[in-house]
Structures are given as structure tokens and as C-alpha cells.
Amino acid sequence: MDRDEVLDIFRSCDAILEGHFILTSGRRSPIFLQKVRVFQFPDKTEKLCAGLAERIREAGYGDVDAVISPAIGGIVPGYETARQLGKPALWVEREDGVFRLRRFELPKGARVVVVEDIVTTGLSVRETVEALGKEGIEVAACACIIDRSAGKADVGVPLIALAEYEVPSYSLEELPPELAAIPPVKPGSRGLA
Ligand SMILES: O=P(O)(O)OC[C@H]1O[C@H](OP(=O)(O)OP(=O)(O)O)[C@H](O)[C@@H]1O
Ligand SMILES: O=C(O)c1cc(=O)[nH]c(=O)[nH]1
Ligand SMILES: [Mg+2]
């Protein structure tokens, strides 16, 4: 599956939103990939994750013990990618703002792939790797559907992206006036009770 096919699926679901968005990193962007508009369709998700599972296998990480995803956005693609790899699908979720493997147990020394929906700065993946490290779980690699950083994000482990889609984001201090004129919205779940 190539980049255009991935972006066409997002476009066909009206998942590429335009406006003024507060990203999970706190950065601002005129573009937001509302991935759940894609993930609501199992057939489209199956196609994307087949592409991602193939990339994971090609990169030599198909034989890990499990796939683990950061909630909420990573859960659906993580589950479907795990299904295609024939591996268990787990997730970390926030407790008092910090990711934890709250509902599952994996033995110390387990090797996993983290599957994420979108990577922008890599912050959420780094938090996931840190959370798993505290439980003695080794992250062999991370795989995502779309890398908004186009390879620039450093997640501390190899990053496999099904597609790169570089779109601008700004710190509050460098916000362009045309973006500042639009009331911002924050679609993601970080910071929600
Ligand atoms: O690379 P980053 O700068 O961390 O940005 C990408 C993250 O942002 C979104 O999560 P968010 O925390 O907004 O919540 P969600 O998973 O509930 O959508 C997305 O699902 C990624 O996890
Ligand atoms: O950086 C983010 O928070 C982010 C960007 C994006 O396009 N989509 C998303 O779900 N999160
Ligand atoms: Mg997320």
C-alpha cells in the first residue's frame, strides 16, 4: 500500500480536517487527521493494517510477543494489526495522566511492537516506551499509520510508518495570525478526566 492509497482512504472518510487544532503535544496545526473517521469502518482499517503488518514483518519485527498501543487512538489499529500478525493486542491507558498497562500482564522481558495511529512529535510513543520499560517490557519498534513528522520524530526505537504526511504545526509563540483568528479545538483525549 503506497502513500497515495493511505491518504485517499483518509480523504474518502473526510478524516483530513482543516481549522485550528490543539495537538496532544500542545502544538497548534491547521490540519488534523481525525483517524477515528477511518477506523469506524472495519474494511478500511483492515486494509491499512494489512499494509502496516506487512511493513512490520518486512522490517523483521513480526515475531514479537504482543502488540501494545497507546489509548485511545492506537487501540483500533493496534488490535487489527495484531490480529493480522497473529499476536495479542494490548494497550496502555492514562492513570492520573500517565500511561500504564492497567488491565493486562506481560512477563518481564517480553518483546513488543508499539502500534500507534498518528505520530506528530513522537511524545505519546516515547511515553508508551517509558511506561513499558518500567514494567520490564522491551519495545523492539514502533509502527504507525501516518507519520506527520515525515521521519523527523525521535521515538527512541525504530519507527515504521505506513505513510508520511508532513503538515505544519506551530508553538503558541509562533502561531501565524490567520490561525490565531480561528477559535482552537482539541480533539484528542489527553487531559480529559
Ligand atoms: O506524536 P504526538 O505528538 O504524541 O502526537 C500523536 C498522538 O496524538 C494523538 O493522541 P491524543 O493524545 O490526542 O489522544 P487520542 O489517542 O485519544 O486520539 C494520536 O493518537 C497520537 O497518540
Ligand atoms: O498531534 C496530534 O495530537 C494529532 C494530530 C493528528 O493529525 N491527529 C491526531 O489524532 N492527533
Ligand atoms: Mg493517541
Automatic annotation (TrEMBL):
Question: What's the domain of life for this entry?
Answer: Bacteria
* Annotated EC: 2.4.2.10
The top EC class, named as a word, is transferase
Q: Which InterPro entries match?
A: OPRT, Orotate_PRibTrfase_bac, PRTase-like, PRTase_dom
Q: Where does the chain bind orotate?
A: T120, R148
**What GO annotations for molecular function exist for this entry?**
orotate phosphoribosyltransferase activity
Keywords assigned: Glycosyltransferase, Magnesium, Pyrimidine biosynthesis, Transferase
Q: Which coenzyme or cofactor does it need?
A: Mg(2+)
Please verify whether the record's keywords include DNA damage.
no
Q: Which residue ranges does the record assign to the Phosphoribosyltransferase domain?
A: 46-153
What positions does the entry give for 5-phospho-alpha-D-ribose 1-diphosphate binding? E116, D117, I118, V119, T120, T121, G122, L123, S124
Q: Which reaction does it catalyse?
A: orotidine 5'-phosphate + diphosphate = orotate + 5-phospho-alpha-D-ribose 1-diphosphate
Q: Please give the pathway this protein is involved in.
A: Pyrimidine metabolism; UMP biosynthesis via de novo pathway; UMP from orotate: step 1/2
What does this protein's UniProt record list under function?
A: Catalyzes the transfer of a ribosyl phosphate group from 5-phosphoribose 1-diphosphate to orotate, leading to the formation of orotidine monophosphate (OMP).
The annotated subunit structure for this chain is: Homodimer.
Q: Which family does it belong to?
A: Belongs to the purine/pyrimidine phosphoribosyltransferase family. PyrE subfamily.
Annotated protein name in UniProt: Orotate phosphoribosyltransferase
